[in-house]
Write a structure and sequence with these properties.
binds beta-D-glucopyranose, about 475 residues, alpha/beta, TIM Barrel
Length: about 475
C-alpha cells in the first residue's frame, strides 16, 4: 500500500477550492479519495457566543429576573434560575470551548451585577469578570464583550431606563468603570446587542419586560437614547483604550412579503427592512436620525464604530396590513423550520446581510448565528451551509474576520425559557450535565482545520455533498 499527497487548485464558486489529494494503490485496486476544502484565512476567529443573563445564573437585580418571577408566563423550570452556572464555574465550559478549538468567545457584562445600586460598584463582581476574562486568555480564547444584552438593572428601570435621556450619563459612567477595571483584557467591545430587536420586542410586543410606556413614539425615543449611549460608550472606551475595537451586534434578518400576499406586502417588507436593518447603521455612520419621530443629529455619533457585528438567524415574511402576529408563519411548502416555529433555515440570507454592509467599509464579524434544535437534526447542516456563505463572502474579499456560533451551551432563551436549545453542547438545566452534540464535534473539526471539507460534509450531512461541493468532484475509480 502506498500513499501520496499533493495539492491542486481548480475554479469553482467564483474563486477556488483547494484539493487535498490522497491516492491509494492496493494490489489491482486504485482509488482516488479526494478531499475538497473551503479554506478560511489563518487569522480567522472561530468563536462561540453567550450573554450574561442567559448563562450566569441568579442575576436577581435586573428586569428580566423580576419579570420571570411574577408574570405567570414562565412555568416551573422555565425561569433562568441557575442558568448554566457560569457565575460559579464558567471555567468548565471554557475548557470545553478550548477543547473544541474555539479561539474567540463572546460574553456580556451584567450591568445590574456590576452596579447593583446607582453609582455603587461591586468590586467582587468586577473581580469575577476579570477571572473569567483571564481564564479565556489562558485558554487561547480572545474575548469579545458586550456592555448591554437586553437586561437592565432594576434601579435603572425605576428611573425610566432608555426612555429618559439621563440614561446616557449612567451608561457612560458604567462603561468607564468597566473599561477601567477590565479594559486591558478586552480587545473587542460591543456597546449593544441587537438594539432594534430590543426596540421591537420591548416597545411593540409583550415578549420582553414592559417599559414605562409601550408604542412607536416611546420606542423611537428609546432608540435615540441608545444611539446616544452608544456614542458616549464608544468615545469613553477609545479614550482609555485607543487600540480597542468597538462595534454593535446588529441582528439582520431577511424581510420579504409573504408568498402570495401582493405588492403592498412587498412595499411593507422594504419599509420594515429599512427600519430594522438599515436605520441604526445609517445613524451610526452619518450621525443623523431620519424617522417620523425624533429626527435630528446626534452629537459624536457619526463614524463611532470600528467594526460591524452581524447576528443572523432567519428570513421573516411580513404582510400588509400587519396582523396581531407581526411575522407571518406561512412558510412555503419546502421551508425547513426550526424548533417551536422559531424561523426558517435560510443560509443565503447570511451572505445577503454581509453584502449589504460592505458599503460601510469596516471589518465584519458574524457575532451570532445558530438554530434552536434540541435533537441536533438540523444544526450540522445549518452550520455547514451558513459557513459556506461566510466562505463565499471571504472568497469575494469581503472582510469577514470571524464567526461566533450561538451558542456554546444550551442556555436560557428569554421568553421561550428552556424550550429552545441552541447549544453545540447540550445541557440539562436541572442537573447541569453537559453532552457534546454531533454539531459540536463537527464545529470542533472545522475550528481545528480552519476549513469545511467534503469529508466532513460526507460524514455529518452527506445529502449536502452535491450542493456544497458540486459537479467537478472526481469520482472514486476502482479497477
Ligand atoms: C439574541 C440571543 C438569543 C438568540 C437566539 C439573539 O437574537 O442576541 O440572546 O438567545 O438570538 O434567539
Amino acid at each position: 500500500m502506498m500513499w501520496c499527497e499533493g495539492l491542486e487548485v481548480f475554479e469553482g464558486f467564483g474563486r477556488c477550492y483547494v484539493l487535498d489529494f490522497c491516492c491509494v494503490f492496493w494490489r489491482y485496486r486504485v482509488s482516488f479519495v479526494v478531499k475538497a476544502k473551503m479554506i478560511f484565512p489563518p487569522d480567522f476567529l472561530w468563536g462561540t457566543a453567550m450573554s450574561a443573563h442567559q448563562v450566569e445564573g441568579n442575576n436577581k437585580n435586573n428586569d428580566w429576573w423580576t419579570w420571570e418571577q411574577d408574570n405567570g408566563r414562565f412555568p416551573p423550570h422555565q425561569q433562568s434560575g441557575l442558568a448554566c452556572n457560569w457565575w460559579q464555574n464558567a471555567e468548565a465550559d471554557l475548557d470545553r470551548a478550548a477543547e473544541m478549538g474555539v479561539n474567540a468567545h463572546r460574553i456580556s457584562i451584567e450591568w445590574s451585577r456590576v452596579e447593583p445600586e446607582p453609582s455603587v460598584f461591586d468590586q467582587e463582581a468586577l473581580a469575577r469578570y476579570r477571572q473569567i476574562l483571564l481564564a479565556m486568555h489562558e485558554r487561547g480564547i480572545e474575548p469579545m464583550v458586550a456592555l448591554h444584552h437586553f437586561t437592565n438593572p432594576m434601579w435603572l428601570v425605576e428611573k425610566g431606563d432608555f426612555g429618559s435621556e439621563i440614561v446616557v450619563d449612567y451608561f457612560q459612567r458604567y462603561t468607564a468603570k468597566v473599561v477601567a477595571e477590565l479594559g486591558d483584557l478586552v480587545p473587542k467591545w460591543l456597546t449593544f446587542n441587537e438594539p432594534m430587536v430590543y426596540f421591537f420586542l420591548r416597545y411593540l410586543s409583550d415578549d420582553f419586560p414592559a417599559p414605562a410606556q409601550r408604542g412607536l413614539r416611546p420606542g423611537f425615543m428609546a432608540v435615540n437614547n441608545m444611539l446616544r449611549c452608544h456614542a458616549a460608550a464608544y468615545h469613553t472606551i477609545k479614550a482609555s483604550r485607543p487600540d480597542a475595537q468597538v462595534g454593535v451586534a446588529k441582528n439582520m434578518p431577511v424581510f420579504q412579503g409573504a408568498p402570495g400576499s401582493g405588492q403592498l406586502s412587498k412595499w411593507w417588507a422594504k419599509r420594515v427592512d429599512w427600519l430594522f436593518n438599515e436605520s441604526w447603521l445609517e445613524s451610526m455612520e452619518t450621525g443623523k436620525v431620519k424617522r417620523p419621530f425624533g429626527s435630528g443629529v446626534i452629537k459624536n455619533l457619526a463614524g463611532s464604530y470600528d467594526f460591524i457585528g452581524i447576528n443572523y438567524y432567519t428570513r421573516f415574511y411580513v404582510k400588509f396590513p400587519p396582523g396581531k402576529e407581526f411575522i407571518s408563519r406561512d412558510w412555503g411548502e419546502d421551508a425547513v423550520v426550526s424548533d417551536g416555529d422559531y424561523g426558517e433555515v435560510y443560509p443565503s440570507g447570511l451572505y445577503q446581510a454581509i453584502k449589504r454592509v460592505i458599503k460601510y467599509n469596516k471589518p465584519i464579524y458574524i457575532t451570532e448565528n445558530g438554530v434552536p434544535d434540541q435533537a441536533d437534526s438540523l444544526r450540522p447542516s445549518f452550520l455547514l451551509t451558513h459557513l459556506r456563505e461566510v466562505w463565499r463572502a471571504i472568497s469575494f474579499c469581503f472582510p469577514v474576520m470571524g464567526y461566533y456560533h450561538w451558542s456554546l451551551v444550551d442556555n436560557f432563551e428569554w421568553d421561550r425559557g428552556w424550550t429552545q436549545r441552541f447549544g453545540l453542547i447540550e445541557m440539562n438545566p436541572e442537573t447541569q450535565e453537559r453532552m457534546m452534540r454531533d454539531s459540536g464535534r463537527l464545529y470542533q473539526e472545522i475550528c481545528q482545520d480552519y476549513a469545511v471539507s467534503s469529508d466532513m460534509v460526507a460524514r455529518y450531512a452527506p445529502s449536502l455533498l452535491p450542493e456544497l461541493f458540486p459537479g467537478d468532484m472526481p469520482k472514486i475509480v476502482t479497477k
